[in-house]
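Title: [Solved] Ferredoxin 3D structure

Original question kept below for reference.
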Amino acid sequence: MRVEFDRDTCIGMFQCVEEWDAFEADRDDGKADLTESEEREEGIFVREVPEGAELDAKFAARACPVDAIVVYEDGEQLVP
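Solution (posted by the thread starter after getting help):
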């Protein structure tokens, strides 16, 4: 399972931070950061979801008011 985060779309509500500790609030930029991620395209950050954190990743994606977080499993989009 992997998660993609579009930081440019993020509006800094930080609901993802409350749902999964892989997200951190960057209050200087007013955006969230996805820790241990790799920038695949400009503003798009990707990381694998560790075993045991799958539910947290899904909750973070569902909590995002602008759908900046997408969860994939085996290439299929699960959330949002």
